[in-house]
Amino acid sequence: MSTSLQVGISHISELTVEKGHTASSYGSGLLEVYATPSMIALMENAAMMAVQHCLPAGHGTVGIEISVKHIKATPIGERVKSEAILTAIDERKLTFSLKAWDEQGEIGHGTHIRFIIDNERFMKKVKGLG
């Protein structure tokens, strides 16, 4: 597979925390603070976006492993950002370093692994057609 992937490429995804991003909305907690599942989704989005433009047409990535620490609560209304940096490439396996922060400082960090896939072939397998 010919790609322009290089260790070190990165992307920052961001959002403003709304009620739908909170632990009480996700069901992962009872409080209206930024939920860990929402932070993980933002981190995965940053990783996906870091490499998507480097892949051949019809290809994408899927997350297969993530390990994160959510170290600080963030209230509704604050801006949250997450950066994913590609740290290793092993054929189709991509490893990322992750960090997230709000207006007060770091809120989380971790690592994430994604695999490059052929979108059409992947969906055929999911639907039991391939």
CATH topology: Thiol Ester Dehydrase, Chain A
Strand content: 35-45%
Largest sheet: 5 strands, antiparallel
Cα-based radius of gyration, to the nearest Å = 16 Å
Overall mean pLDDT stands at 96
Describe the protein's architecture and organization:
There is one protein chain. The protein has 130 residues and is of the alpha+beta class. The protein has a single domain, classed as Roll (Thiol Ester Dehydrase, Chain A), CATH 3.10.129.10. Helices cover 22% and strands 42% of the residues. The chain has three helices and five strands; from the N terminus they run E-H-H-E-E-E-E-H. It has a five-stranded antiparallel beta sheet with strand order 1-3-4-5-2. The longest helix has 17 residues, at 36-52. The radius of gyration is 16 Å and the shape is globular.
